[in-house]
Structures are given as C-alpha cells and as structure tokens.
Fold:
Amino acid sequence: MPPDPKIADSAPNAPQLTPYDEQHAVTYMRLLDAEADNADWREVARIVLGIDPTLDLDRARRTFESHLARAKWAARHGFRHLLQRGWPNSEE
Structure:
C-alpha cells in the first residue's frame, strides 16, 4: 500500500470494501480517532486529508464528511469482510 495514498473528493459508497478503502484504512482510523478526540474538522481535513480549508472550505468539508462516513461504515461493516478474506498482500 502506498504510504500516503491520494485522497479523492468523495469516499466510495459501495456495499463492500473497495481497493480505495483498503488503501485508506489508516486514513479511516485517523479520522475515527480524531472524532473520538473531538478534533476540529478543519484541522483534521488539513492534517489527515491534506486539504486546506482556508483555500477550499466547501471541498474540505465535503471530503471530510464523505470519508468520515465511510470510516464509520468500514468500522461497523466493512472490515469484517477484510478480516474474513485477509489483508491484501502489499507485494502483489
């Protein structure tokens, strides 16, 4: 997996994990940790997603909300599938 995979403006909305989800598992965990710490979404967008809300507030907010929603879905449903089939081999 790339160390810092590119962040799309919208996270997937598929009913199963996608390659994008697998590449962004660490991003999703960081978003969930930030939410648990009540971090300001603007700071999270800047640090975790690499989007400066002072330059593009609407995009930063949409991207943050999309990825946080997907992170919550993955935590509740998606990673069960990942654990059942195993983590992808990064050497492939």
Q: What stands out?
A: The chain has four helices and no strands. The radius of gyration is 13 Å.
